[in-house]
Amino acid sequence: MSQQQExxxxxxxxxxxxxxSVTPLDEGCQPLMAERLSQAGFEVExxxxxxxxxxxxxRGTQSPVFCFAGxxxxxxxxDLNRWHTPPFEPVVIDDYLHGRGAADMKGSLAAMxxxxxxxxxxxxxxxxxxxxxxxSDEEGPFINGTTRVIDTLEAxxxxxxxxxxxxxxxxxxxxxxxxxGRRGSLTGNLTxxxxxxxxxxxxxxxxxxxxxAPALDxxxxxxxxxxxxxxxxxSFQIANINGGTGASNVIPGALxxxxxxxxxxxxxxxxxxxxxxxxxDAHGLDYDISWVYNGLPFLTGDGPLLEAxxxxxxxxxxxxxDPQTSGGTSDGRFIAPTGAQVIELGPVNAxxxxxxxxxxxxxxxxxxxxxxxILENLLCK
Length: 381
Ligand SMILES: [Zn+2]
What we know:
By secondary structure, this protein is of the alpha+beta class. 31% of the residues lie in helices and 26% in strands. The strands form six sheets. Strands 1-2-6-3-7-18 form a six-stranded mixed beta sheet, sandwiched between helices. A four-stranded antiparallel beta sheet has the order 12-14-10-15. A hairpin with a 2-residue loop joins strand 4 (91-93) and strand 5. The structure holds zinc ion.
């Protein structure tokens, strides 16, 4: 394909991929997007927090606010020798665009931007506002990225109504799956205390493994909830268990257990903690426990954003999309707590974070059409 024949979305995706923006670097991706957005009538703000570059761009002052969310950073390339083409030299081979970030998520960024450009050209007086929340710290420690931008917006009472996150949600074909929520994640670090002693003199010791075993059995068998239409039942999993000195003749003094909940919106972290403590207490254990809150669950149920997204995918691809809440975390978890509806829609995720990451060029065109149709469905009534 010659340079002249390249579509707008392919050309922009290649331009973004050629910038080696490994977390938390941006390498000029956001200035490139900012220039295009300014030309399309967006007010663009750069928000730099420590090592992280963020961008908030908005066209319009009215509600509702539709916000495309995404990241310019990419994960490291890994073993360079295993790449068939240089990761930061984008190239199309057999309708697949190859390069680090092609699927996660520079292809989506290009699709969002081109969709917004096309939409405002056709609908210069659209309803509400269109916004972009872009960070260079989604793949990293997520301290100075989306969460800081959201704090800034909240402080000035600027609200996002609907957010479309461009994470690669699709599994087999574009739009077959969207993510309309994420499970919560809660980790418990439990230490059950006993008294160390000689196995031949158990009356002089107190075995924490024996005492904890029935409690752990009860925790492992417990039904925490039934899940709901969008979430599978809450799951409890013991991830690590350590006790004993390595010797066969010593009763250990303590047992350490690390466990994790992936939980639905039918429960809360507080409810889960209370139920765990009740079980531990009912077994008469002497213990210490600490908790790590990895993320709250969120759910975007039936409503304007989910409806607009389903209708757009159906119109563009003919597919009836399947909303799911499975998979890992995304920056949607920072946007949803403000009350915004959040949906993730992006390309097929088969190669993300791998060597030889790639995305189907025709999918980028379809994704652009989907994003534009979502804007039409929400802001052109
Ligand atoms: Zn991503």
